[in-house]
Structure prediction request, 285 residues.
Amino acid sequence: MNISKIGVLGAGQMGSGIAQVALMNGYKVVLNDISEAVLDQARGVIGKGLDILVRKEKITAQDKEGMISGLTTSTSVGQFSSCDFVVEAATEREELKLSLFRKLDEVVPSGGILATNTSSISITKIAAATGRPGNVVGMHFMNPVPLMKLVEVIRGLQTSQDTFDVTMSLSRKLGKEPVPSGDFPGFIANRILMPMINEAIYALMEGVGRPEDIDAIMKMGANHPMGPLALADLIGLDTCLEVMNVLQQGLGDSKYRPCPLLRKHVEAGYLGKKAGRGFYVYEKA
Ligand SMILES: NC(=O)c1ccc[n+]([C@@H]2O[C@H](COP(=O)([O-])OP(=O)(O)OC[C@H]3O[C@@H](n4cnc5c(N)ncnc54)[C@H](O)[C@@H]3O)[C@@H](O)[C@H]2O)c1
Prediction:
């Protein structure tokens, strides 16, 4: 399969990162969001990301202009009719993803691959919402996308071998290291990571430690590059809560119950770094 243009649905932290990496590796990109303001912000973020590479002399200013000229932004999903491969990176909510995949199925040419960057939602269920379940796959990038090497590639029950192979190969062409995972709630990364983050939030709620102490102990004690609360803020607390809900419902074990303090933060709109406040306070980007 010869892919030249990649569609990215959702232009938040992950979608803008995926678009940047695709542009950097010679692909044209159609980037979609419901919000024009988010699309403008994403253009800015991608421009700044490429500027860093120009400053480090990894690419020239001319390369940057070429990459940016390959980017189309749009609020209309109709633009995906020119894409053979679309990665969905919209908000982590099952009913939203199911309806987006129904729309993508109508618009993307038959034979095109529909990938989702979901952190936890069943690929099998998303695939079943489309008329091309064999062409649906999980492509789980890590945050921040330009820096993190891993892509978890998740095969739903219906995903064809061809779709899986094309997705593994595309991940490598994007400079990433794809690793396969089965389609169970949270896949591998978040099944292990999120309960740890959730436990850190319980420790905070129960007064076992202050955020900076919990994070310092896990950084120095477990040799993690970031503490669990800072990482939760980076991921987005709305996403963390959704993943815990999916783990609890999908695996049916009470050990996955989301911490009430995590719920409270999401109710308050303290969604982490992207909102300027989570367990820590950030300067607005
Ligand atoms: N944040 C992380 O660390 C991380 C890591 C891996 C995967 N993911 C997954 O990536 C996806 C996106 O996460 P994010 O952190 O970028 O969230 P985000 O909140 O930064 O961005 C989500 C974007 O989706 C857009 N959106 C919502 N409904 C839409 C619609 N109907 N059509 C088009 N766009 C729509 C929103 O406007 C927003 O810009 C989620 O599925 C999440 O689970 C997140």
